[in-house]
């Protein structure tokens, strides 16, 4: 017989920071999270959504779905020279689950971050820290021995990823869609995507304050964001 109390695990405590009208600071912190695909904003006791939230997406905010991306394609000299050296690349793997599957992203400052399962990380000749492998794409030197070792291990890596990609060029005269054109010319299937938002209003709800139990607040926010009845 299984003891029920053995499965009475408390959820890990997350650090919640309460701020007021500091959206720029919040968005900067979000940029540091490499696998952020969607953002939920909860506004208690609010009738009208502020304009600075409704208009958060820029007019030219297109990004691209690139299918069957290989690890090596992200360190290919053509990709690094054309995009990493001339702007900021942002990318995340789509429909991958952290701790259960291989996940990759390119975050701010052109850092390639890989959250790999153990069997995959053992085949990558890079140090693992906090279950992640981080590679600074800007610092790659194509003629170095270290690059050749990384290249060989990435070429052996069999997993392919569907990735959401966008690029901010350092030159305003160069169209951000150039990155989609690059992948298309190299045989990858590309699809243009547009950011979208949805509004969900709930009434007569009791919201936990989080003062005494952060775990309860975290659970409530998760349920609310997923539109699960509480």
From TrEMBL:
Organism the protein comes from: Schizaphis graminum (Green bug aphid)
Cellular component GO terms, alphabetical: multimeric ribonuclease P complex; ribonuclease MRP complex
Protein name: Ribonuclease P protein subunit p40
Molecular function GO terms recorded: ribonuclease MRP activity; ribonuclease P activity
GO biological process: one example: tRNA 5'-leader removal
PANTHER family on file: RIBONUCLEASE P PROTEIN SUBUNIT P40
